[in-house]
C-alpha cells in the first residue's frame, strides 16, 4: 500500500474544507445554516473544517460572530471532525486574542495567516507566529499565501518555526513546490495543500492532505483522491484529481474569489450559504450556470 511520507498522522485529518460562513438573506450570521452545512460536509467525507478563514469571509465578520460560529459548528459535528479556527489579522495582539477566544469556543487548532498589508520582514513574521503560538494552548497551522498578504513565510523561517512545540502544520498557497518539499524533508510539519490543483502532488511527496474551498461543493469527490492514493491505486488517484480540474478552475481561477463562486453554486443547489458581504458581490447568472454544469458533470461521472 502506498502512503504519504508524513512522520505521523496528520494533526487535523487529511481532507479539510475551508467552509463558507452562511448568512441570512439580510446578511446576518446564519448559525442554523452553518450547522446544517457542517453536518453535510462531515457526512460527505470531510475530516476537518476550517472556519473563519478567507473563504469564511473573516475580514467582514466580527469577533463575536467568529466565536459563535465555532461554537455552533462544534455543537453540530461533535468529535466527528476537527475544527480549525482562522484567527489571523494584521495585528499581533488582536490575533493572539482571537486565538484565545477560539480555544474557549471549542476549536481544535488555529489557522494563522502572515500579517498582511504592513509587509513585515522575516524576523518580525517569525516573532508574530511565535507570539500567537505562545498565547494559547492550541496547535497552530501557519498560512502561507503571499498572493494575498504580500509576504512569504520563507522556507528558512518555516524551518525555524518548526521547532516551536505548538506550530504543527502549514496551509500552503505559496505556489513554491520546491520550497514546500525542502521544509517537508527537514521537519515534521504537516503540509496541507491550500490550492486544489496541488492536492495530490503535495500528498504524494509527503503532504498531510488539503484545505479546500471547492470541498464545500464536492467533498466526497475530493476525498476520493486521497483515498485512492492511500489504497495504492495512484493511477486512479490521478484520474480522480483530473476529473475535478474543470470545477476547480471555474471556482478558483475565473477572476472571482472562491467565496463568491462557491456561495453562488451552493445557493443554486439549495444548500446553506446566503449572500456575500460587501465589498464582495454575488456571482452572476452566467457564472453560476457554468459552475452548475461543471458540478453536474463531475457528480454524474461513474467511479473510475
From TrEMBL:
Name by which UniProt lists this protein: 4-hydroxy-tetrahydrodipicolinate synthase
Residues reported in the UniProt entry to bind pyruvate: 55, 211
UniProt gene name: dapA
Acetylation is among the record's keywords: no
Site residues, Part of a proton relay during catalysis: 54, 117
CDD domains (alphabetical): DHDPS
Molecular-function annotations in GO: 4-hydroxy-tetrahydrodipicolinate synthase activity
Assembly: Homotetramer; dimer of dimers.
Assigned EC number: 4.3.3.7
Highest classification ranks of the organism: Bacteria, Bacillati, Actinomycetota, Actinomycetes, Kitasatosporales
Domain of life: Bacteria
Protein task: Catalyzes the condensation of (S)-aspartate-beta-semialdehyde [(S)-ASA] and pyruvate to 4-hydroxy-tetrahydrodipicolinate (HTPA).
SUPFAM superfamilies: Aldolase
Keyword Acetylation: no
Compartment(s) where it occurs, according to its Swiss-Prot or TrEMBL record: Cytoplasm
Keywords linked to the UniProt accession: Amino-acid biosynthesis, Cytoplasm, Diaminopimelate biosynthesis, Lyase, Lysine biosynthesis, Schiff base
Amino acid at each position: 500500500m502506498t502512503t504519504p511520507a508524513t512522520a505521523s498522522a496528520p494533526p487535523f485529518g487529511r481532507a479539510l474544507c475551508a467552509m463558507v460562513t452562511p448568512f441570512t438573506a439580510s446578511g446576518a450570521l446564519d448559525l442554523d445554516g452553518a450547522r446544517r452545512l457542517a453536518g453535510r460536509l462531515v457526512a460527505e467525507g470531510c475530516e476537518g473544517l476550517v472556519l473563519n478563514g478567507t473563504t469564511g469571509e473573516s475580514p467582514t465578520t466580527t469577533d463575536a460572530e467568529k466565536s459563535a460560529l465555532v461554537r455552533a459548528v462544534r455543537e453540530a459535528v461533535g468529535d466527528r471532525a476537527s475544527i480549525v479556527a482562522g484567527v489571523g489579522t494584521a495585528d499581533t495582539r488582536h490575533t493572539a486574542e482571537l486565538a484565545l477566544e477560539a480555544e474557549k469556543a471549542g476549536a481544535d487548532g488555529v489557522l494563522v495567516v502572515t500579517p498582511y498589508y504592513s509587509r513585515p520582514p522575516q524576523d518580525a513574521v517569525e516573532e508574530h507566529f511565535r507570539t500567537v503560538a505562545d498565547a494559547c494552548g492550541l496547535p497552530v497551522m501557519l498560512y502561507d499565501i503571499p498572493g494575498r498578504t504580500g509576504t512569504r513565510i520563507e522556507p528558512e523561517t518555516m524551518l525555524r518555526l518548526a521547532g516551536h512545540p505548538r506550530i504543527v502544520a502549514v496551509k500552503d498557497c505559496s505556489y513554491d513546490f520546491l520550497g514546500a518539499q525542502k521544509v517537508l524533508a527537514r521537519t515534521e510539519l504537516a503540509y496541507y495543500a491550500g490550492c486544489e490543483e496541488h492536492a495530490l502532488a503535495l500528498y504524494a511527496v509527503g503532504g498531510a492532505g488539503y484545505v479546500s474551498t471547492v470541498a464545500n461543493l464536492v467533498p466526497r469527490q475530493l476525498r476520493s483522491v486521497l483515498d485512492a492514493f492511500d489504497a495504492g491505486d495512484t493511477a486512479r488517484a490521478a484520474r480522480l484529481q483530473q476529473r475535478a480540474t474543470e470545477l476547480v478552475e471555474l471556482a478558483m481561477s475565473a477572476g472571482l474569489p472562491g467565496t463568491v463562486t462557491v456561495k453562488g453554486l451552493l445557493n443554486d443547489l439549495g444548500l446553506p450559504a446566503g449572500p456575500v458581504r460587501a465589498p464582495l458581490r454575488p456571482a452572476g447568472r452566467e457564472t453560476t450556470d457554468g459552475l452548475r454544469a461543471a458540478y453536474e458533470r463531475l457528480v454524474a461521472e461513474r467511479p473510475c
